[in-house]
Each structure stands twice: as C-alpha cells, then as structure tokens.
Write a structure and sequence with these properties.
Blueprint: H1 2-10, H2 12-33, H3 41-50, H4 53-59, H5 61-66, H6 82-97, H7 99-106, H8 109-140, H9 156-183, H10 188-199, H11 201-211, H12 215-239, E1 242-249, E2 252-254, E3 257-259, E4 263-269, H13 276-294, H14 299-307, H15 317-338, H16 341-350, E5 353-354, H17 362-387, H18 389-397, H19 407-430
Antiparallel strand pairs: 1-4, 1-5, 2-3
C-alpha cells in the first residue's frame, strides 16, 4: 500500500490532481471555521460549553453532520453541502413526475448539463431558506435554548448580511466541489462531505471519554473504536456485494463487419440506493422538529417534543420506528426510479443482448424486476439497521446521536473512501502501477 502511495505521488499529473484536491479541502476547512459577520464567537463557545451540544445538534443532526459542526457556530460555510444534496435529490425525484425533466435526462450530456444548471439554482434558493431559518433561530435564542447573546445586533441590515454571506458560502462550496470533480481526484461533493464528517471525529471520540469519567471512560473509548472498526469492515463487505446477471450478445452484421458475440454482466449491488434513503428519511423527520421550534406552543409541537425526543439526543421509540420504516420505503422508491428494468430490457433487446435461459423482452423485464426486489429487501434492512447505530451507541455508552461512528457517517466515510481509492487505482493501473486493492 505504501508503494502505491509513492507511485501516486511519483506520477506528475496524478500528483497534481491529489495536491489540487488537498488544497481545495484546506480552503473548505478554513471557511468552515471562519465566523459570519455579526456572530459573537466567544458567546457561542460559552453556550457550547455550558449547554449540551448533543441536544442542540440533535435538532439539526443531518445538516450539522454534513457541516462538520460548523452549523452551530454560524460560520461562512455553516450550511455546508446539504442544500446541494437536497436540491439534487429533489431534481432526481422530479424527473419521474415532470415530463420535461425526464426528456432532458434522456438527451445525454446536453440534457444533464441543463439539469445541473437547475440544481445550482435550486441550491441557492434552498441556501437562502436555510440561512434565513438558522439566523432567525440565532436571533430568537432558540439555536442554543436558554443561551442568548449569540449575535452582536439584531438589526435588519446585519441579519440580511448574515443570510447573504451564508448563502454565498453555499455557492462557493458547490463551486469547489465541481472543481474537485473536474480537476481533482474523486467526486467533489462526496469528498467535501467526507472531509466535514472526518473533521468531527476527534472531538466526537473524546466526547465518549468525557461523558464517562474514570477508568470506565477509557474502556468505553477503546471498545467503541474496536466495535466501530468491525462495523466499518462489515459495511465495506456489504457495499461491495453485488449480483452479476450474465448477458450475452448475439453476433450480427453491421455494414460489412460481424460484431457482437461478447459476454458481459449487469452488476446489481445489494445496496443499490447508497446513502440517499437515510439522508431523505432524516430530512423528512427533521421537518416536524423544525416546525415545533418555530411554533413551540402548539399542540403538535408539544406532541413532537414528547414523542420525537430521539431528535434531541435521547432514545425515542416512535422516532426510531418512523426512521426505520421511512428508510425501507425510500430505498424501494429510490431504486425504482434509478434502475428501470423495462428500459434495460428494451436496450438489451435492441442490441441483441439476452440473459441466458430468459427470453428477450417482457420475460427479461420481469426477471430483472424479480432479482432487483430480492436484493432491495436485504439492502433496505441493512440501511435501516446501520442508521440505528447511533441509538445503540447512546444506549450503550451514553453518547449522543451524533457520535462520530453513527450510521450515516460510517456509510459515507466507507463509501467515499472506497470510491476515491478505486479512482486513484484505475489511474495507477493505466500506467502499469500496482494499485491499493489486491
């Protein structure tokens, strides 16, 4: 592995890409610690010291997770990459509902460029809405309940400036992610998420020790690290699991040439949906909590505070059941819109491909749907169980629901790390170097 690292830096163009990516990540981390105008950082530090950060972060767990804790400090990059992720998910879902978007998706590169442009616009709109919401929470003292004085002034111009700076930060983060994808190594947006989650690891790990003083704290600390490494290994094993459906192509004449006759396969992953169902279910469950924050006196808000207490860092059976069910439902839904058995079967039939033992056309479509449903069932349960790991960690070691080896964070860390290593390895193998994976 060390020789692979040396080979990666020995290759000039690959070294340039890696250093460019690291430079963008360094700028990104700097912006995540740079406070927005009108923010009293000294007061925020006091609020985070005396209040329970786990309780505050629990209300906004998903956005805070993807911002590396920058959300609660109201930095320039406080919103992180979350508005872009939400906009991307919305556009993907809308392609099923809106015929215009579906037509653009089928146009290839030009259509995808137009969808990307719509995603950027929607990201800025969501950035304005999110920035306005969190500036309002900071002004009213609800970002840290019972802790005031986070902002120097609540004048309109100062508040509008904060919203503009945080929204501009979202646009810059989106631009930097696209720069990494174009000129660096790996998927830019995924690497930025990876960076923010990894940045929260040291403080999160030490928080387990602090929550359990004495010798028992060290025992919990090392036990949690050991178990988390085992969980990462299990996730790595499942993430690479796939069902390969063999496909044969008949020989046919194209002009004067005889083409075809090759054998390939369709790789169907066990976790075909990735981490999207976990993100989407958390976003849905975040909405009633956000409503209860703005309308704390309503009956619905009181019900949410009682029955969805799990969002505040404590165990709640209704919250965890709702999350478990939503993840399963969203997994099936997302897989159904990202992999269309009818379209795949038609393309195979068009180019003379068939699954051995299955007739082309409708029988192939039914077969692909049958296999996909059998894979989605364990895949959805796997995602739901992994997402429940923070709750188990809270019950076992007293960590809050954002402790570093939570379900979503582990999925992202493993998935992005594996994808980045594979991309570097493919470039090394093009130059006849041995890669990372044996």
């Amino acid at each position: 592995m060390f020789s692979a690292f040396a080979n990666a830096f020995r290759t000039p163009d690959l070294r340039k890409k890696i250093l460019f990516t690291l430079g963008i990540i360094a700028i990104f981390r700097f912006g995540s610690t740079l406070p927005s105008p009108n923010v009293n950082m000294a007061r925020i530090s006091e609020c985070m010291a005396f209040a329970s950060q786990g309780d505050a972060a629990g209300l906004y767990s998903m956005i805070n997770l993807f911002s590396g804790g920058a959300l609660l400090q109201l930095t320039v990059f406080a919103l992180g990459i979350m508005p872009y992720i939400t906009a991307s998910i919305i556009l993907q879902l809308m392609t099923v509902v809106i015929p215009r978007l579906e037509a653009l998706k089928k146009e290839g590169g030009a259509g995808q460029a137009k969808i990307t442009e719509y995603t950027r616009y929607l990201t800025l709109v969501l950035g304005i809405l999110n920035a306005t919401a969190f500036v309002t929470l900071a002004r009213t003292g609800q970002l840290f309940p019972g802790c005031d004085g986070i902002l120097y002034t609540d004048e309109l111009f100062a508040l509008v400036t904060m919203v503009a700076v945080m929204t501009a930060g979202t646009g810059i983060v989106m631009w930097m992610g696209e720069l990494i994808t174009e000129r660096g190594v790996g998927n830019g947006m995924s690497l930025l998420i990876f960076t923010q989650i990894a940045a929260a690891f040291p403080a999160g790990i030490w928080g387990v020790k602090v929550a359990n003083p004495g010798t028992i704290g060290w025992v919990y600390l090392f036990a949690m690290i050991a178990i988390s490494l085992l969980v990462m290994g299990a996730i790595l094993f499942i993430e690479q699991g796939q069902r390969r459906i063999p496909v044969q192509y008949a020989k046919r004449m194209v002009g004067r040439r005889l083409v075809g006759g090759s054998t390939t396969y369709i790789p169907l992953k066990v976790n075909q949906a990735g981490v999207i169902p976990v993100i989407f279910s958390s976003s849905i469950l975040y909405l009633p909590v956000l409503y209860s924050t703005f309308q704390p006196e309503s009956a619905f808000a009181q019900w949410v505070n009682v029955n969805f207490a799990g969002a505040n860092g404590t165990f709640s059976l209704p919250y965890n059941i709702a999350q478990f069910v939503l993840i399963i439902l969203f997994t099936y839904f997302y897989v159904s819109i990202t992999f269309n058995p009818e379209e795949v079967a038609d393309n195979m039939k068009k180019y003379g491909g068939f699954v051995p033992g299955v007739r082309a056309g409708k029988p192939t479509e039914r077969y692909l749907g049958y296999v996909l449903n059998r894979l989605t069932a364990p895949g959805s349960l796997y995602l739901a169980i992994v997402a429940a790991l923070p709750t188990l960690g809270f019950m076992l070691v007293g960590a809050n629901q954002n402790f570093p080896f939570g379900g979503t964070s582990v999925l992202i860390i493993v998935g992005v790390g594996l994808d980045t290593i594979k991309r570097i390895e493919s470039q090394l193998q093009q130059r006849n170097y041995e890669g990372f994976l044996k």
